[in-house]
Amino acid sequence: MTHYDDLMAFTRDTQALGQVAGRLGWDQETMMPRGAASQRAEEMAAMESMLHARRIDPRVADWLEAIDDTSLDAVGQAQIRHIRRSFERTSKVPAALATRIAKLTSAAQGIWAEARAANDFAAFAPTLAEVIMLKREEGQALAAGGDVYDAMLDDYEPGTTAADLDAMFGAMRPVLSDLRAAVRAAKGPAPLSGTFDEGAQMKLTRTLAKAFGYDMTRGRVDKAVHPFSSGSGLDVRITTRTNAHDPFNCFYSTIHEVGHAAYEQNISDSYLLTPLGNGVSMGVHESQSRIYENQIGRSRAFTGWLYGQMKDAFGDFGVKDEEAFYATVNRVGDGFIRTEADELQYNLHVLMRFDLERALMSGDLLVSELEAAWNARFEADFGYPVDKPSNGVLQDVHWSVGLFGYFPTYSLGNVYAGCLNEAMRTALPDLDTDLAKGDTSPATEWLGVNVQTHGGLYTPREVIRRAAGQEPSEAPLLAYLTEKFSGIYGL
């Protein structure tokens, strides 16, 4: 065997162990008994300790030194690029610190969930302060004198900096704010009313998952507090949640997570259990979930088909026709929860979190000040006060598990989705005819070929540039949102 073969065999075992650790996380969110939390924290810490040791194993450095990158094909060079980057980043973080973070964040997740249920931020604040302290220490190790937040962001969107995002988000915010104000001043559709059987919701949600190409022989749909997707390759699982008074929460959470899952399922099988066998970044990942959920799932054509499916499942539910249903699905209304936000207001939720977590990491904002800062920013952006912590600072799981630098990738994913949608619509001029029949395959196959199959072969921006035919820009997204909501609200 060559040095490259030895390195890839070792890496495949590491990737497999990482999948096992991910399955522990999935189980913790879906089926684990509540009383097992402390033991699970120990298990997760042990797995992280083992994975960290493998990622900085001296043999990896020896193999990387011995391999001549120029002798490899494009796939081999990309594998080495990812392995070298991971090795160099992981080597900067002391093993003891990595283990402490894994143990603390596993326990913090349960503490956050209890504080959220009790609407008691003070019960979570000391733990959050510990998480921030350890993550800041990790960021300092990674940054090596550079910007700590940029070092964290690089975990989720390699090659992007906070300055890049500041410029992009700075261009988005005034357009979104003005459009939001105009829409909120116009008369819009009423929300759904009545009760929708939660068993029927889960039945229809599985129909939707399959309609968007989710392979149920390699996946499953379960319920959790916070919808998520987990795994890659041949085992990719999603969760959703139900609300008897809001079936859209269930349906569009499912479509969103199917976008993530389809990305992982459609990566070339030749990359299985290698660094190329995962989505290349969280921004690109989010582009898939958001284009599935919004540009496809909330389109006039697809909602026409969904209207018929809902009538079959629930009978007459108070919406007179397909056009009224399209407006109802895309209704812009008041709400506190990011994951339930309409397409127009969603990015305002993300931009707020981006600013707050940067301030937390820099020390400009203390944890003791966070709840008040959240509430003040929310009221300034949305025009009404937060009523309780579970609708405010405690609504997201991300900070409890140490995912600082993750939030901005949601809006970056929307930007990417805007670019991809523009290119996809040009390539598929008759797409709406298929969507009106509930057939998403032309769209999902286009995305599979142009984005998903590549996995980590290209850099994030290169993936979007190759698929969309242009450098990533916020302009297509803003044009799409302006045209869509101006039409719905008669602006």
Give a written overview of the molecule.
By secondary structure, the protein is an all-alpha fold. The chain folds into 2 domains: 145 residues, no CATH class; 328 residues, Neurolysin, domain 3, CATH 1.10.1370. The protein is built from 20 helices and 3 strands. Strand 2 and strand 3 form a beta hairpin. Helix 8 runs parallel beside helix 20, helix 12 packs across helix 13 and helix 14 runs antiparallel to helix 15. The model has no long low-confidence stretch (mean pLDDT 95).
Tally of individual domains: 2
CATH class of the largest domain: Mainly Alpha
CATH architecture of the largest domain: Orthogonal Bundle
Q: Uncertain spans, ≥5 residues at pLDDT below 50?
A: none
Mean pLDDT: 95
Order of helices and strands: HHHHHHHHHEEEHHHHHHHHHHH
Number of helices: 20
Strand % is under 5%
Widest beta sheet: strand line-up: 1-3-2
For the sheet with most strands, the description reads: 3 strands, mixed
> Roughly how many Å is the radius of gyration?
22 Å
Count every beta strand, where a strand is a DSSP E run of 2 or more residues. 3
Distance between the termini: 66 Å
Which structural class fits the helix and strand makeup?
mainly alpha
Overall geometry comes to globular
The portion of residues assigned to helices is 55-70%
CATH topology of the largest domain: Neurolysin, domain 3
Write the layout of secondary structure elements.
Layout: H1 3-30, H2 37-55, H3 58-66, H4 74-91, H5 95-118, H6 121-143, H7 148-156, H8 162-185, H9 198-211, E1 221-223, E2 229-232, E3 235-240, H10 247-266, H11 282-296, H12 300-314, H13 322-329, H14 346-362, H15 367-382, H16 408-427, H17 431-435, H18 441-450, H19 460-468, H20 475-489
Parallel strand pairs: 1-3
Antiparallel strand pairs: 2-3
